[in-house]
Fold this protein.
Amino acid sequence: MTGGGHFAGAVFQGKEVLQHKTFHRYTVRAKRGTAQGLRDAQNRGHTPKSAGAALRRHNEAALVKDIQDLLKSWSDYLSVASGIFLRAPKYNRSVFFGGRGAPLEIKDKRICSLPFATRRATFSEVKRVHDVLSTIQIYGLLIIIIIMPIKTVEEDEQSSEDEGSVQLEMVEVTLGTLDLREHEVKPNKKKRRKRRERKTTEREGELLLTSDLSHWQNSGTAVVCEWWEYGLRDALYTACKTGDSETLCTLLQGEEITALHLNTPVDSAGFTLLHVASAAGHKATIRLLLDAGSDPACRCPPTPYGVSPDKDTRNTFRKYMAEQPDKYDYTKAQVPGPLTAEIESKKAEKKKAQKVLRRRREREQKEERRRREEEEEERTRFLELSDTEKVVLRSLPSPTGAVLMSRCVFMCVCVCFRRCWQCGASLLGKVPFEYLHFSFCTTRCVQAHRRANAAPKP
C-alpha cells in the first residue's frame, strides 16, 4: 500500500506475519494535498523552484528507490505467493511496474487491486486489510442477497458438453412392432408418473418458499431493513469517494433516499457524504448532493467547504451559493460569498492585466540586462588597452582615421573620451578628475593610476 509519501507492505502466511516494512517521506505539501510529482506533471511549464519543492522531489525519488529495493529483497516471497494485493494511485503505479528492473509485472494474474476504500498506509492498516480479505461472511436464511452469477464461456461450454454426454448415456430406445399400429399410441406411464412427481415437488417447494417468506416477513423485517440501509449507505459512500456521478445520480433518484441518509455521519469523525465528496475534490458529485438536499452547514467542526483540497472545489460551493442563495445557511457553512460570472470575468481581466504588466516588466528587465552586458563588454575592451594605446587613439584627428582598425579598437575610439582610464567606468554626466591628459571618475582611481605609473625610487 502506498500513497501520500507513505508505504506499508507485509508478507503473510495465514495469520502469521513473515515480513513487514513501512516507509514515510515528505512528498506532499501541507494544505495542498497533492504530491509534488503530480503537481509538476499537471503544470509542466510552471514548475515551482522553491527549496521545499526540490526537497519533495528528492524525497519522491528516494521513496521509489526504497520501495524497489525492498521488493527486490522480498523477491523469494513474491515468486511463491498465491496472491498479491496492491493499492497505489494511478500516478504512482510506475513504482511497481515501470522501468526495466520493475519488481512486479503488470500481466501477473496474481496481482489484484483492493476492492474497498482504505486509510493511510500503515502496518496496522495492512493487518486490517488482510483480516478483511481473509474473512468470509456467512449470511443466514433471513437475509436476501441478490448476486448476479458470473459465468464464463468456458463454463458454459463445459456444462453443455456434460449435458450432452448425460443425454447420450440415459436415452435408450427399444423398437417393437406394436408401436407401429395406427390410432393406438398411448403415453408412457413412467413419464406420466415422473411429470406428476415433478409437479408435486414444485408445489411443495412453492409452499415451502411462501412459508419461509411469510416467516421472514413476520420475524426478520427489521434485520433485512438494517442490512438494506447498510448496503445503501455503503453504495452512496463509494460513489462519493470515487466520484461516480452516474451511480450517485441513479441512487439519489430512488424514493428510499431521504435527507436523513445524506446528512447522517458516515464515520466516527462526523463526516457526511458531502464531506467525503469535498475532500476527494469531485465537483460534479458535490453539485448532485447539494441539489439532493445535503446540508453544507454540518455541525462537524471542519465544514465541507473547509475540507476542500483546492480552489476549484471551493468555488463549486460559491457558485452554488450564487445560484441558490436561500437554500442553505451559507454563513454557518463558512462559505465566504457567492461567485457569479461577473466576478469571474473581473478576476480574469485582472489576471490578464497582471500578465501584461509582468510581461512588460520582464521585457524591461531583459533590456536592462542587455544594456548592462554591453556596458560591461565595452568597459572590458577599454581596460584591455594600455595607456599608450589610449593616448594614440586620443590623438587621432577623428574616428574616420580608425576605420582601418579592428571593430574593437574603433569602439574604444568612440568611448575613450568618456571613460575612466583606471577602472573604465563611464564619465557621462560626471565631472572627471584629470591630471596630465588622463581622466578619472574618482580620486581613488587617480591615486591608483599614479602609484601604478610612478617611477621607481633610486
